[in-house]
Structures are given as C-alpha cells and as structure tokens.
Amino acid sequence: MDRAVAKQREGHPHVIKRKTPSGNSQHVGKIENGKEVEIIAENGDYSCVREVGDPSATGGWCKTYNLIPLTSRRRRSRSRGKMPRRVFDPANAAASSKGACQPMRVRLLHLSDTHGMHDQIEKRFPLQEADVLLHTGDLTNNGTWDQLRKVNEWFGKIRHRFKHIVVIAGNHDSSSASWCKRADVKKALTNATVLNHEVALDVFKDFGLQIYGSPWLASKGGTDPGGKGHLFHKIPSGIDVLMTHGPARHILDNISGHGKSFCPWGSSSDLNDAIVRAKPRVHLFGHLHEQRGVWQRDSSGRYIGGVEFKDHRGRAFPTKGPPPADWPCDVVSCNAMTSHPGKDHSKTHIAGSARLILAERATLGEPWRFVAA
Ligand SMILES: [Zn+2]
User: 329 CA distance to ligand 1 centroid (A)?
Assistant: First the structure.
C-alpha cells in the first residue's frame, strides 16, 4: 500500500475534498491537511485515499496534487526490519496513469444461484462479453470443498474472458444448516475475488467502480438475512454496486403464486434501511428463484420491468411491485438462474441468462449511469 501525506498547497483549498460517486465534492474531516493516508486507487488527477489504520473505510477521492509522499527518512524509520515499500511519487503516478485504463463504459455481468449447474449455463445461454462477472451466491448446493472446487475450476476456464470475477457466498454456500459443510469460500475460490463485507479493490483500481459484497452469514437461516447479528450496517455510503444474496423487504421477495396474498421470504427490512442510507446505484442479489427479474429506472424516473420467472402456466410469477419512488437504485436485479421445480413444475435447469448491466459516464469524475441491457 502506498502512503502519502495529504497536504495543503498554496492557492488550493485548505481541506481536501472528497469526490463522491454522484460527482459532488464534500469536505472529509478524516483526510485533512497533514494527515497520513494510504492510497488505495489512482485515476489520473484523482486518487482515492483513506486514513492510515482505518482499513474498513473505503476512502474518498481527492486531487492527486494534494498528496505528498512520505520523506525517505521517515519512511526508512517506519520500515526498518520490514520489507521495503515503493515510494509514492505523485508525478510518476500521474505520468504512469496517462494512457492507463480510465474507462467511460464498464460491462457488468450478473449471475446468481447457479447451484452447481454452471456447466449447463452456456448450453442454452452463452455468457455475454463483459468486463466484470459478478455472482451473488448459491454457487453450490451444500458449500462443500468438492462442490466449491468444481466452481473454482469453471472460473479458471472462463476467467480469461473477464477482467475480474467477483463473488459473494449465498446461504447454500455458507449456511449453518446441517446440509451445508461450510468450507472456506474465500480459500476455495482462488480464481475469483470473494467479498466478505468489503469493496472489490482491484475493480476499483481498474475501473473506478465501487462494488461492495455483503455475503450471507453462516449464522442465518434461509428465511431471515436480517434481524439479530446482521452486518448490513457495514455497507458503506456512496458505493456504486451492492451485492447481497437476499433481497430487501418487499422488493422481489414474494413466494406466493397467483391468487394468493403476497408472502415475503428471505428478505430483510434491515437491508432496506442500509440501502436507503448507503444509496448504492445498483443492487444485485438472487436467492428467490421465482422472483428472477429486474427493476430499472427509466428516463422519467419510474421503475419499469418486473419478474421474468414463469410459473408452470407460463405466467410471470407475481411480485409486490416496483421499489418505492425514492429508492436510490437505478437497477435492482434478482438473477437466480436455476428454475424452481415447485413453481414451474420442471426438472431443475438453468432457466435464465446472465444479466448484462452497463455502467457509463461521459467524463472522469462524473457519476456512473447504470442500465440493464
Ligand atoms: Zn439462496
């Protein structure tokens, strides 16, 4: 991790300002003049920094010219007896970032709930070209080492087609239920970035997109990802994409068929509170196969879309309705890809394709806009 001192430059603002994903600048008390900071990403004129010793923080953007490298004397005394660290040089960083990837468009590919049927996906639904593959859990049925090894082998075969593969665990991968073996998902999936209540830093460095993953907790049953002991309060404000395994309450969480009253299952109202607070622009999840679908805000600000899963009579499975009008997400995607035999009366199969979501912006520093393709 490169380190620098955030320092005022003559003629420049006294306090370093944070560049928020929505494009606004805001003062950040933690990253003030003279504070020692870690540089977690660089993108041309801007660097993303966080205060040293606060690894849980996702950091804030500031102008690269406000970062001064630690002096070599100070650095030597700090690193005595440790591995030498590369000295951060703002001039070099700016030069090396010239011509580096500063994309205006990133293609995200959302998969979920493949339940060990990953080999079947492309027989019916070839994976679209994309930059980042995102899987929101239930990669396996029981989370055993052997099942995860097979998923990891599949990732190994397809990883050349994507710049990053980012994954969180679902309840079938990490449940405390007796039918789950609870292998260490992070250790098992060496061909992917497994998020455990954290931002995908490599994606952030390459694309400037903040993707945060909140996996299913092993302590939770399939019905209730919220309630006591949940960790949704850790979801940081200002992220672009939130990955969870289950839905927020009343948003693609109904399990009752036509003619019956709505019945939420496997969703969390604590997650609603976290989303309203953190304001991610995209929420990706799975878990409820009969609620596979997408809500997308159109140019008039209304949500369009709905459930894509078809019941045994070929009807779209009912759902409660779009998110509230003031919901912060532009795209809400449930993409549990395997069928639900109890609801479509079929043998379990891959019923839906991966979902392509485009992130686009006109200039660096402008907020991303997200569209489900
Ligand atoms: Zn699930």
Answer: 22
Q: Which residues surround ligand 1, an ion (CB under 5 A)?
A: 138, 170-171, 287
Measured distance CA(302)–CA(279) in Å, rounded? 17
pLDDT in tens, 91-112: 333 333 333 445 789 999 999 9
137 alpha carbon – ligand 1 mean position (Å): 7
List, for residues 190-210, the tens digit of each pLDDT value.
Answer: 999 999 999 999 999 999 999
* Statement to judge: residues 159 and 48 lie in one domain: no
How far, in whole angstroms, is CA 74 from its chain's centroid? 37
Number of folded domains that form the chain: 2
Portion of the chain with pLDDT greater than 70, in percent: 72
Within this chain, do residues 70 and 153 fall inside the same structural domain, yes or no? no
Q: Domain span at residue 54?
A: 2-97
Q: How far apart are CA 335 and CA 340, in angstroms?
A: 13
pTM, entire model = 0.76
The answer on 125 and 33 residing in a single domain is no
148 and 60: one domain? Answer: no
Cβ(147)–Cβ(115) under 8 Å? no
